[in-house]
Design a protein that fits this description.
Elements lengths: L15 H5 L7 E3 L2 H10 L3 E6 L4 H11 L2 H10 L1 E6 L4 H13 L8 E5 L5 E5 L13 H14 L1 H15 L13 H12 L18 H14 L4 H14 L13 E2 L7 E2 L2 E2 H18 L2 H18 L9 E2 L2 E2 L2 E2 L7 H8 L5 H19 L12 H5 L10 H14 L2 H9 L7 E2 L4 H20 L16 H13 L8
Parallel strand pairs: 1-3, 2-3
Antiparallel strand pairs: 2-4, 4-5, 6-7, 8-9, 9-12, 10-11
Helix pairs in contact: 4-6, 5-7, 8-9, 9-10, 9-11, 11-12, 11-18, 14-16, 18-19
């Protein structure tokens, strides 16, 4: 067997996610011919770990296991360890996430897949804790058992690998056929409406993802085919998203999902593509409803984009991290004392009362969550109950607070102080071209359609001291040039 090259070999990579792991004691390799050749030469199975820079549970697994010397020794002894940034290699991610789905798992990141030395998947999962909890086995136990099976039961490994490989073959995809008929699309719209939560919007259950493509289809089905309740389902969902905790009421922008069914408790990372699609969907709804709430959220989210997501040179960053100083949501969560200190002694009594009402409401809601409440492991409710997350203000309280701050001209001051806190989440400077193009198109479409309607409620000014603005405008125009200027319904 070829002698294995020791050491972590990620320091020369350019991916922000891979560079986060360059100092791990794990002997990581980047995906590529050299790593795959090493696996073949040594005959060892591959441990493939896929994630992205803003992924909270990727950070958790890294801190628990990949930074741990004892765990790293087991990984290095038993596997060729390969790291993949899904933003950089979505093709690799798609293949092995597909394999995980074929194993009956829901999927998610970090993606932890075990491959043969020929890179064929045979088993996997997502997050594995260092110690057994959340109903999941300890990571080292998983490592030892997978390595044992690979060594002692090769026929079982081959059987799994062959089944997965067969299911993933392009030949098993549905052959090309005629486009769906108008009747089929209308019927699909009617069926999908039945999946909507009639109280909170979104698809029933938890966690809740915005799923703008799903709701974009429903919107078009409502306009084009008159599908009953389709438009109402979309507007209900957008209203709850716009007023719930998944929205950052202070800084703008939408988090990736909420862990509960009420859109209340967010998973705090902000993804470029999520916000791109939500801007466009909310703009489509605004064209019909002229909702002041949606207009406000579009303006605030575009403002957040231009303030926090434009990187040097005029491109768009891919994401904002959920974690600050190793804790999820720390940047976005405020205590009542912090709020009063930031607003200053001149804070009006009604502002103080509003914050107190939010504090009381959230204290009641979060201090003692139901034992069977659907929450992700490490739910924020348990950790943040004593504090006041400004981002979690609901309904009229959130709107009242925003209006009150705006009347006093304090929102800008609060935001300036907030962004100066020494807790800012990391930004993923890696620019994913599909995300950037999607965001550019959404922004261009949003502004164009509002302008066509003669709307003067939303004014997005050029950011001060931004010499790249002309270049950004050019990019927006180019990104949207290939799309139709007419309705897509």
């Amino acid at each position: 067997m070829q002698e294995r090259i020791e050491g972590n070999r990620l320091a020369a990579e350019t991916s922000p996610y891979l560079l986060q792991h360059k100092d791990n004691p794990v002997h990581w390799r980047a995906w590529g011919p050299a790593a795959l050749a090493e696996a073949k030469a040594t005959g060892k199975p591959i441990l493939l770990s896929v994630g992205y820079a803003a992924c909270h549970w990727c950070h958790v697994m890294a801190h628990e296991s990949f930074e741990d010397e004892a765990t790293a020794r087991v990984m290095n002894e038993l596997f060729v360890n390969i790291k993949v940034d899904r933003e950089e290699r979505p093709d690799v991610d798609a293949i092995y996430m597909g394999a995980l789905h074929e194993l009956g798992e829901q999927g998610g990141w970090p993606l932890t897949m075990f491959l043969t030395s020929d890179a064929e998947p045979f088993w996997g999962g997502t997050y594995f804790p260092k110690e057994q909890r959340y109903g999941r086995p300890a990571f080292v136990s998983v490592l030892n058992e997978v390595a044992r099976v690979y060594r002692e039961e090769p026929e079982k490994v081959k059987q799994n690998a062959d089944v997965l490989k067969d299911r993933l073959k392009p030949a098993h995809r549905v052959p090309a056929s005629a486009p769906p008929s108008e009747e089929m699309l209308a019927d699909l719209g009617r069926r999908l409406v039945q999946a909507i939560d009639p109280v909170n919007g979104g698809i029933r259950g938890a966690p809740k993802f915005p799923q703008p493509q799903f709701f974009g289809f429903l919107w078009r089905a409502g306009l084009r085919y008159g599908v009953a309740n389709a438009l109402e389902a979309v507007n209900l969902t957008l209203a709850h998203i716009a007023q719930g905790g998944i929205y950052d009421h202070l800084g703008g922008g939408f988090s990736r999902y909420s862990v509960d069914e009420r859109w209340l408790i967010p998973h705090f990372e902000k993804m470029l593509y999520d916000n791109a699609q939500l801007i466009e969907l909310m703009t489509e709804s605004w064209r019909e409803s002229k909702s002041k709430l949606f207009a406000q959220r579009i303006e605030e989210t575009v403002d957040w984009l231009l303030r926090e997501m434009v990187v040097p040179g005029g491109g768009f960053a891919a994401s904002l991290d959920a974690d600050s100083e190793g804790e999820e949501g720390k940047f976005y969560v405020w205590s009542l004392d912090e709020i009063h200190d930031t607003l200053g002694e001149g804070t009006r009594a009604d502002d103080a009362r509003t914050f107190a009402e939010i504090e009381a409401a959230l204290g009641t809601a979060l201090a003692a969550p139901p034992a069977d409440a659907p929450r992700a492991p490490g739910t924020l409710a348990a950790h943040y109950a004593p504090r006041t997350p400004l981002a979690l203000a609901e309904g009229n309280l959130a709107l009242e607070l925003a209006a009150s701050l705006a009347r006093q001209g304090k929102r800008v001051a609060v935001l300036a102080r907030a962004t100066a806190r020494p807790l800012q989440p990391g930004i993923e400077w890696h620019i994913a071209p599909p995300d950037a193009a999607g965001y550019a198109h959404a922004l261009y479409s949003c502004l164009r359609r509002l302008d066509e309607a003669g709307c003067d409620a939303i004014v997005v000014e050029k950011p001060p001291q931004a010499p790249e603005w002309a270049a950004i405008n050019d990019r927006l125009a180019r990104a949207a040039a290939g799309s139709s200027d007419g309705d897509e319904t």
